[in-house]
Write a structure and sequence with these properties.
Elements lengths: L2 H8 L6 H15 L7 H15 L5 E2 H8 L3 H13 L3 E4 L2 E4 L1 H11 L1
Antiparallel strand pairs: 1-3, 2-3
Helix pairs in contact: 2-5, 2-6, 3-6
Length: 110
């Protein structure tokens, strides 16, 4: 296999916005779950996070941690994972939801 074929073989396919949103739902719901007695509490946290991020503004991770009642280190870990999957963008300890996902999140959690 030549260099051109190796480059094509190593590329990962671009994910659709719907796939990214489903990935976001799956990962965030698992990662934000602290020992809570009911699944509704966990989904409520996930919904609150998505609602906050859907406003098209950058949010300080520390502020989100306080607002959502999620430990800061856990939330940072969640955002690192979401950043790897292109679900959020990050700069100077702030995060913003991917532009393509914003409308899907608004439809899903509104």
């Amino acid at each position: 296999m030549g260099p051109a074929e190796a480059k094509v073989a190593n590329q990962t396919p671009e994910l659709s916005s719907e796939t990214k949103l489903q990935t976001c739902r799956n990962h965030v719901s698992v990662l934000l779950n602290s020992p809570l007695p009911r699944i509704t509490d966990q989904m409520s946290r996930l919904g609150r996070l998505m609602e906050v991020l859907a406003d098209a503004k950058c949010h300080q991770v520390e502020d989100l941690s306080l607002q959502l009642g999620v430990p800061l280190e856990r939330l940072k870990w969640v955002f690192r994972l979401l950043l790897e999957h292109g679900i959020v963008s990050s700069s100077n300890d702030s995060v913003m939801l991917d532009e393509d996902l914003r409308s899907l999140v608004e439809e899903t959690w509104s």
